Amino acid sequence: MKPIESSEWKEKGDAKMSRKQQNLLNAACSDLALGIRFWGGQRFNKDDFRHLLSACVLGDRLVPGINTGHGPPGMIRMARSSLELSKSEATEAIQMAFDIGDYPQDQQLTCKPIRWCAVVCLARWVVDEELAA
Question: Distance of CA 23 to CAs 26, 36, 89, Å?
Fold first, then answer.
């Protein structure tokens, strides 16, 4: 039997993301960090992926850094926390994570598709024949 995609995690609304969405987003970001060696030449951990997804959904500002006298200040990203995601925004961020993991070539990544952990698999797919009917 081919698994059927679940939509339980696809919540809508302006209320804060649910604990279930928060756990799923964290699990997906952990899997991305394990499966994708580099993003834009940088090694990303799960928090980096969570920040990237949040910045894409919530918006982000780049501002000049503070000149400390130790070389050029560079640019600093002024981002908001993933904890500020609404249910609808969390759904969007989670879907982005899945898209990156399932189709890394779309982001010009040279890695294989992500092998998702049990938490992600259980949230994404219904495999019980009775539930699928």
Answer: 5, 20, 15
